[in-house]
């Protein structure tokens, strides 16, 4: 797209040849070079040189890049630190559109049935976790919010700890280790560890952070299994402040 500064550009496609076979031995895609992704920035860049001003610029550019993508009618569906590239001037490019899909801003006849097992677990929005198939660009905003929080958490770490080196686990906002529907069967009424649900389940980690949902929040779900699972998880989370 002409004038696009927010996504990586395809510069060349190279077919690797082999003397042993007639067909190409491999295909290499050459794209823009960008020094870092956000994950590398979090883990390896000298944190003493990473100021609050840098964070503001990166967050602003991430919002601009996401807005550009959504205005073009594209859902990325896999926003996470390693898919957000940052150069030495804090410019941002979004990469890896392997899971992206067009998003139609105009209403179309009938509901779309989109894939539900998408996006990396830690950045997966609640509607995706609950296998809702008629989602929209809001799932990218959820993922981007998680990335935002992790960048800011980095800046809040103890300076001595930052000097020792940052591990990604130090700043993950919602580090669940399992995720519905590939988790305990809600029909059993309890998880494998004897609790109502596993304590490391992604959805329960989310609700522990934002608080339990209201009765109306799950009305959009049509799948009974998802509704049962949400009710089970929601009932096991205490209201914020208790």
Order of helices and strands: EEEHHEEEEHHHHH
Instruction: Decide which structural class fits the backbone.
Output: alpha+beta
Which architecture name of the domain at 35-175 does CATH use? Orthogonal Bundle
- Tally of helical segments: 7
CATH class of the domain at 35-175: Mainly Alpha
What is the number of beta strands?
7
Oligomeric nature of the chains = single chain
Q: Can you walk through the features of this model?
A:
With 242 residues, the chain is of the alpha+beta class. The protein has a domain at 35-175: Orthogonal Bundle (Transferase(Phosphotransferase), domain 1), CATH 1.10.510.10. The protein is built from seven helices and seven strands; from the N terminus they run βββααββββααααα. The chain has helices spanning 38-43, 52-71, 126-129, 138-156, 159-164, 202-210, 224-235; strands at 10-16, 26-31, 36-37, 74-75, 84-86, 92-94, 101-102. Strands 3-5-6 form a three-stranded antiparallel β-sheet. It has a two-stranded antiparallel sheet with strand order 1-2. The chain has a two-stranded antiparallel sheet with strand order 4-7. α2 packs antiparallel against α4 (138-156). The longest helix is centred in the N-terminal third of the chain and has 20 residues, at 52-71. The chain is globular, with a radius of gyration of 21 Å. It starts with 9 loop residues before the first strand and ends in a 7-residue tail after the last helix. Mean pLDDT is 81; it is low at 186-195.
């Amino acid at each position: 797209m002409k004038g696009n500064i927010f996504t990586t550009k395809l510069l060349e496609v190279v077919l690797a040849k082999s003397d042993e076979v007639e067909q190409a031995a491999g295909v290499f895609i050459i794209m823009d070079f960008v020094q870092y992704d956000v994950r590398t920035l979090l883990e390896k860049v000298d944190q003493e040189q990473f100021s609050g001003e840098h964070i503001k610029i990166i967050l602003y550019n991430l919002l601009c890049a996401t807005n550009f993508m959504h205005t073009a009618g594209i859902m990325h569906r896999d926003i996470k630190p390693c898919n957000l590239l940052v150069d030495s001037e804090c410019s941002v490019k979004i990469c890896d559109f392997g899971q992206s899909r067009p998003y139609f801003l105009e209403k179309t006849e009938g509901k779309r049935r989109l894939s539900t097992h998408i996006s990396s677990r830690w950045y997966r929005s609640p509607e995706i976790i609950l296998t809702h198939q008629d989602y929209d660009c809001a799932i990218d905003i959820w993922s981007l919010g998680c990335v935002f929080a992790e960048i800011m958490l980095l800046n809040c770490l103890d300076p001595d700890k930052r000097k020792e080196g940052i591990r990604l686990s130090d700043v993950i906002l919602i580090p669940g280790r399992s995720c519905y529907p590939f988790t305990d069967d809600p029909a059993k009424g309890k998880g494998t560890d004897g609790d109502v649900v596993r304590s490391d389940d992604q959805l329960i980690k989310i609700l522990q952070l934002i608080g339990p949902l209201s009765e109306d929040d799950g009305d959009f779900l049509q799948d009974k299994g998802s509704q049962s699972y949400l009710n089970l998880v929601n009932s096991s989370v205490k209201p914020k402040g208790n």
